[in-house]
Amino acid sequence: MKEQDFLNEMIIKFCKKLDKFSVQYDLKTEEFVTFGVFDNLLFIFEHYLEQEETCISFNVSSRIKSLKNDEILCSAIGLEDPDLNFRIFNEYSVRSYPVSFKNTEFSNIKELQEFALDNMPSESYHNFLKNYKESITDLLKAFKTDTSNATQGFYDFVYKFEDNKGIFWQDRTLMQVLLLLELNQKDQALKILKNDPRTEKERKFFIEYDDGNMEIFDILIYSIENKII
Question: Are 104 and 115 spatial neighbours (Cβ–Cβ below 8 Å)?
């Protein structure tokens, strides 16, 4: 058996154990992925074991996918469609971008086997799922706007390069602007963008490109005024 096949098999066994408890957290674990739908948002936690040059890494990649279309923002910031590899992603037919990564390293196969991802105490699997559910709860709070509207969709405001991973998701003003754009209330969205009292430095919403960076509020203002979106 190839080493990566062995690692994949270990992850599948880990996920089978995880799935025994997933339903208690309104989640489902299938193959390499734990997922759940809340407020029309699909939250996904992908699990990987990968052989790197000096270690074996265990990664959990957290993704958020809107069940609505995100073409407006993708058009504004020039993002291309990501390549979706997992069957569960394709079943939902929506786009996805990673928003966070967690990493644990093992020096070799023996150390990984001794750790026994597929034979941990039940509490360990519950801790994984508790962390997933808590992060979902926190993000849902962040996605609410200051209006009476519940979350009616979400544009994947993300990074094209690694340098963008620190962008804050919790900004209510930005979430409200994206919701207004989704509802085609562009004039109101433009008004909010222009009247935001913070400076670019205070907002820290910069999108990195090969030849520099642009501030997301500036991108959206330009795109609305020039009828790009």
Answer: no
